[in-house]
Amino acid sequence: MGGGHSRVNAANLPIPPPRCTLIPATDPRLHFRGRHVKKEGCIYFDWPCTSFKLQVASRRVWLRMDGARNYFNILINGILVCVLKTHSDVRDYLMPSPEPASEASYILEVQKRSEAKIGSLTQKPTSVVHLHGIILEDSGSLEELRLEDTQSSVRLEFLGDSETSGFGNLGPSQPGVPGLKSMLTMNVAHQDAMKAWPAVVAEAFDADFHSISWSGAGVLWNAPGCSADANFLGLYSRMLGASEDVKIDHEWRPDAIVSYLGGNDWWSLAQHGDEALIRGFQDFLKHLRELRGPDVIILVLLAAPSSVCACIGSLEDQATFAADMSRCWRAAASAANEGEDPKVFLEVVEPKPPCSLSEAADWGHMGHWSVQGNAKWAAAVIPILQRRLGWTEQLLKMSEDGPSLEGSNGSEV
């Protein structure tokens, strides 16, 4: 496996000295992105890509949290410096210091790279993160972030399953239908949702974004072994994916909802038939409209027959999958609100070059896209979203060549 960023292990962590200050996680100087719940001075979250940032001036900084076995990217001034692996109890995690060390303040960002509940035969599943606060040494302080570091004029909400959450995108190249060996070697460390296609698209538009994604979840029918306790129709409205106790915050409204679902429903389509799935997706579209209001654009992405998606073993199967989902989703969109919703769009995503079973670098663990495969899909989604929302070229941060396809397939973390 290739080299990757160093990992901060949970064991043998330096204990904060007596003269430290604990700042609660609910302090307004901590800025969160993604769905999260405030309760009794703590912040709770579990959806992938949820993150928070703060501007800090302190020689040493700790995170006090129950990380619930999740993995996090740690960034200093926008640069990834390490990956944090956590355990399922409250610990104080010492953050790396900026290099070279200085008295000046810097921006610390913590990004959740694993999804709400993911495990393996040898790893207990992740669960809800409990962030208690930030510990600063001695006379350290938090500072107010500049407005441009905390706000974006664009809001995007991405809905999907394993391809959207970045499942296996850092794992070894294993194209095609997953086999027993790949299932036995599955590793939570091989997922980085911040290198999945939604994060790439959001970065292109400098957008505030939410990734509401769950491996194995279908709109109506989950895949066997899916860790979710509900289908996507039930999961979407939850602030915490693993709990239905708290419903979504209506103050955060996206400019567009980008949905790429159906890969798990497809495996049950022959058994249950088109009509049930069409009704299910019709109900889902109505549910989105009820929760998000009449103005948000809903963009439904469809796979192309020429570019292979997760767990597909041949171009023939890909063509069948693409045709089946197009037929069902178009029928559902036409029936939703009696076909009178002018802000629901269906678009075929056709990466060029395509994700190919013969291109090893396109693939990560268990037949899922690698970082490169995700970048290919993102590059095809960006112009579609730009056109549908009427955004100008000036909004794009990207170069004329599109998103970088650079990324290490199989990076060790």
From TrEMBL:
<feature type="domain" description="Carbohydrate esterase 2 N-terminal">
    <location>
        <begin position="34"/>
        <end position="121"/>
    </location>
</feature>
<dbReference type="Pfam" id="PF17996">
    <property type="entry name" value="CE2_N"/>
</dbReference>
<dbReference type="InterPro" id="IPR036514">
    <property type="entry name" value="SGNH_hydro_sf"/>
</dbReference>
<dbReference type="InterPro" id="IPR052762">
    <property type="entry name" value="PCW_deacetylase/CE"/>
</dbReference>
<dbReference type="InterPro" id="IPR040794">
    <property type="entry name" value="CE2_N"/>
</dbReference>
<protein>
    <recommendedName>
        <fullName>Carbohydrate esterase 2 N-terminal domain-containing protein</fullName>
    </recommendedName>
</protein>
